[in-house]
Amino acid sequence: MRGKLPRRFYERPAVVVARDLLGMTLVRKSGQELLRGRLVEVEAYRGETDPGSHAYRGPTPRTAVMFGTPGHLYVYFTYGMHYCVNVVTDETGVAGAVLLRALEPLLGIERMRMRRGNRPITELCNGPGKLCQALDIGREQNGLDLQGGEVWIEDDGYEAVEVGASARIGLSQGRELPLRFFLVGSPYLSRRKPSTPVNHQP
DNA sequence: GCTAGGATGCTCT
DNA sequence: GAGCATCCTAGCC
Description:
The protein has four helices and ten strands; from the N terminus they run βααβββββααββββ. It has helices at 7-10, 14-21, 109-116, 128-135; strands at 3-4, 25-30, 33-45, 73-78, 82-89, 96-107, 151-155, 163-166, 180-183, 197-201. Strands 1, 2, 3, 4, 5, 6, 7, 8, 9 and 10 form a ten-stranded antiparallel sheet that branches. Residues 195-202 have low confidence and may be disordered.
């Protein structure tokens, strides 16, 4: 399954989609600008059954897209200054999502650096807020369809060698669940040493 | 290398 | 009014 991921890729439980997204390429097109980065760290959020999810207490105006059609972006604003981007998963009406936490920059690195303040390549996209800043993703991209031509995700044939799992980061609820997934050994992670590693898979 | 603290405004109670 | 799926800097090893 090469090329742009089809809608059915996202029509599965968030945990499954999260794992499968590792190693895929996120593409951002804005005018003449084309940016690419490999997904090296994600977190699954299981909606109404997950105390760590924004959707835990049912739909609100803010979380409406999470309950909508899979394969769209859920972008939210937090801490008064940062955006975070998720892809919507599960079937329509079920609020699964996968938070994109870190990328390995592949293309458009100088553009990312301009937005991120001339930092080393490992610090351009190593966190959910940084990734959004580097790729210029914000409010306007909330609800965007990943089947369109502005933001999408591709399978370029890269094989994830070793996937690690750990507790999610930054939560006060639902911390015990091992729903953060990452490429072991990648220098582009938001945390080099996961606080509580849970398992590994070849 | 590390930790502590502050920035800043939206969302829901 | 409280809390927040974060980031950066200063200060100190």
